[in-house]
Amino acid sequence: MTDKPTGNSDEDSVSLKRNGRTPTNGAAKQTLGMIQTLRRSIRRAAEKSPLSPGGKGSKVTPRTNTPGDDSSSRPPPSPSLSSGSPSTSPLKNIRGFFQKKEEDDADVPSQKGEGLKRSKTDPNIGATLLQRGADIRRSLRFGTKKDKDKNGKQESLIPVAEHVLEEREEEKQEEEVVWEEVEEAYTLPEMPHTPLSVMQINNLIQMEVLEEAHLNLLALRLEFNQEREKCEEDSPMELAKKEKDLNILYGNLREKIQTIVRDSNSLPSRNKALLVHVARIIQEEERRAEEPGGLQSSWREVWREAVAEGVQVKVEKVHLEPREQNASWLAVHLGLLGKAIVEDLENVKKELRSSYPPSFKVFSTYVKSYHRVVGQHLKKLERQVTELKDLYTLLNWILNSYKSEKIMGSQSLRPEMMDESVDLQLEDDFLKQLKDKYCCRVKVDMRSSLDKLVELEHEEIWKDSKTPEKEENILISQIDMDIWTQVKGNTSNSGRIDAQLEQKVISCCLEELKQFPKRFEAEFKRHCGAHSLRTEYQITYINSFNALQEHMDGYRDSCPNEVEAFRKEVKWLIVRLLQDLEDQFKEDVKPYLRRMMTRKWLTNDDDFQMLHSRTKLLSLHCSQMRPPHDQELASRLHYHVVREYVGQLMKNNYSCKNRKHETAAAKIRKQWSQLRDLFEDMSTHEWLHPVGDDLSDIITQKNKADIKNHLQPIVEHYPDFSKKHLVAVLNFRGLLRGREHQLILQKLTRLKKELGGAAGNKSQVLFGDMQVTVNTDCLSSLPFSCPNFCSPITGAT
């Protein structure tokens, strides 16, 4: 290629009239003629390419060379610039011409079988031609298919094979350097002495012959500046017209550059070579920024905006299904978006980066554009997100997935991403607003779920009078597990997103739970106020809310105030349920207790049997209750039964005569034993057990004088046992008055003084709050010296 070709340079000149243009000078003719010559050369090569549809080059068919025709044994000679043209002007755009649409080439007739004649070549263009020639060959992808004749003998294809091997070697060399960036320094090709017309320059811009267009534009700009300096005052209209033309051309050039850059990540193979010229134009315009005639705004910033526009196009092309058609619309979209981001950045890394000088920081620019554009895209998506699962998906993608190895941390983007930020560029309050929206949605969903639980309980349990389930003989419901599962799910999900968000979610759940016990109680009373299984249900929910409280105690470290507030609400609900159980039992046994220590009681056991059966049922209910509430309820009712049973002795309902006191004492002892057996396993009030036997010992004594010897046990066990209580017991025995009566009371007084602090626990009160009714007939026989006894009964001690 270093030899100077001999041929007619007129073949490189093609009239511009076909495109509606008229050449203005010889240099323009030669330049555009060279372009048409290159097109014809490429057209012939494409027809022979195995990749060309319908082309004749799909198979390599050997033929006998004639002395006058050796074009088949060697590739066609590379065309060169005609004399007087810029040194590298058209050849740098060969790939651009080859990839233009068919209408751009329709004007040039196909000339099969005719090789290009060489024109005069600048000796400095050798290296460039080799490089561009390799580009052409690589674009055409010549094949090395072998044809066999009918006898199976292989024809000799040595000239073609050598040519193909040379191409492959050159392709390998090209592939080795494809990862390298364009050098920062460059030499501006020589500008034409006379620029093309405005229309011709504009046509070059539209045809994406950017280097030629820019060189002519610089020449036109230089011409404008020179004319302005020479004849500034003579022809202001002509200068204004040229300045306007310059602005229009520069605007068109900038728009074309923006389009190329914007589409470069979508069409990398088409725009890769063009991007080299784009970068050089930007560099040159930045260098000439202070010179008049150009555009004032930053070319580099326009390039960045174009990159961002391309990224915007990529993001907007990601498929997004309507919410109504796919419940997982957001998760699917974000998955596709992440994949598109990685693929595009891989393409930037492998393809686009090598078309720019290092100062452009191409990969970094694309990464930053994605941070910004995706952040804006997510802001739009957020307006459509209303459900909790979608809010979780969005937050998790922003805070975790985007930074992870799935997207920005992908192995395929290393090591370039090592020095880049992996955080999205979001508005200042966007994340806070999104987290607040998430927490509000948690509260709304939590309240809705709790209401649905109550409705479900009504539909499946209360409405059909279904017996509650049992687990290890404990009545249970699924309410506590359902609530705990939802709270745990919410906190676990939010914890995977952000620790601070997890604490907020826990707080939201507990705040909503705080209102639940009262709402549940109201619904329970409305549906089960007179339910046959009301007692079983109450025990079930005492157990359930107790278990729920224990579950929520696990969040005490995170939200101590909210946990304590919830505990109080649960506590009062359980207290009210226990109180209702207690009131029910008291109401049930009230008529039977009231008939104790009467004439009927002495001869009939029906009332006591009913009392016993109710107490036995109470024992069963308490056994189905979780600690500590089982013993708490049993102890309170144990106290109530003892006090009411013993209290009947204090009401003077009956007085034993004719030695019936012995029968009464035996009956009291027997019944007391049965009651004690029932309460022994479930009550903690062991101190109540002796009272029945202590009173039986007093009542059963045949000799009145012996009663004084059996007072000490009851005084020791119950320090609040007083004279009025002893008078009532003596009255029931049948000892209403007399000297023995007085001696017994005096003995009690002495015992209480003697024992003093040695008596039992004074905090354990049994007799102190018992109502005592005394027969007034006995008062007439009392000595006047007993003012204390004659004082109001409620004050006697």
Automatic annotation (TrEMBL):
Residues 1-123 are annotated as: Disordered. One of its GO terms (biological process) is exocytosis. GO terms for molecular function: SNARE binding. Signal peptide: none annotated. Residues 80-91 have a biased composition (Low complexity). InterPro entries: EXOC3/Sec6, EXOC3/Sec6_C. Pfam families: Sec6. GO terms for cellular component: exocyst. Belongs to the SEC6 family. This is Exocyst complex component 3-like protein 4.
